[in-house]
User: Fold this.
Amino acid sequence: MAGKILKIKLLTILTFMGAIFSFCVISPVNIEAASKGSYELKIPLGLDEEAFKVPQDNPMTKEKVELGRLLFFDKRLSANNTIACASCHIPALAFTDGQPVSTGINNQQGGRSAPTAINRGFSKAQFWDGRAATLEDQSIGPFANLIEHGFTSHDELIKKINSIQGYKKLFSDVYGVNKLTKENVGRAIASFQRTLVSGNSPFDRFDYEGDQGAISESAKRGKKLFFDKARCNLCHMGTNFSDEQFHNIGIGWDDSDTLDLGRYRVSKNEKDLGAFKTPTLREITKTAPYMHDGRFATLKDVIAHYNKGGIKNPFLDNQIIPLKLSDSEIDDLVAMLRALEGEGWQHVKVPTEFPQ
Assistant:
């Protein structure tokens, strides 16, 4: 009996000491997560949960995701109240805008196509050239761009948001008093964007569950081509169908007067001249037109580009070679890509009202 009492006392002491230790080392990140409604994101079939990236300093909470949703759709977050993040990332178009290049404030056109916001939580460097190291950085970049949202600096953005009492309260509720900063704007919008996932596609049900009826015979042939003769998987790899790298596939080299230098502008490395990030192929059938300059209207156009071996230039990726695909094989590849239409992002609703 005495032995049992001693064990109980010892266990109590160790438990108490553990609680004290946990309290002493708990970080502000964990405190925030514990004090708010934790956001439980369901990762659909086919996606790698371990590859989903949530920074330690930006845990997802229900309140933060909702704040990010409001900011994402609010056109007041532009110099003249006409442009929101959602202006170029439209839910009905799988969070793209359907244009070759995006249109910003005062109908100014940028130089690149708007990539989808879907599955950004599985990605590392953001934008076509990877200039943003995190989704948080990407989420605030366009605001201080005179062509996009039109603010001359992030200070102007914060001043405008700060003039809206409803937002001041929401930021205080989520982050604490006097925490309306550009960094926290980015954290909120990034948290919302991480809820935009796509998986559980017919391809996933065929590939992971063995459902033979999930995709067509044409798509099955397309899958074999994708991983073999067509060599698509050399760059479009992993569960998000992207190697997260940058490749020169010859886009723009047929018109050197308007050549976009791509990743080179960021890295200053000659090998990155004309290189752009490999996009995800999930929901690819909904995100036309294609390539960083939106030059291809259809997936058949894209495959035709690869089929001929891209456009020759001194920095062409050595993986780009003529494929010698027949018309029927191209059709099969398109069928396989259509099978990547999934679910997990359609839940988003445009806010009916905004903080005042």
Observations:
- The mean pLDDT is 90.
- Strands lie at 246-247, 276-277.
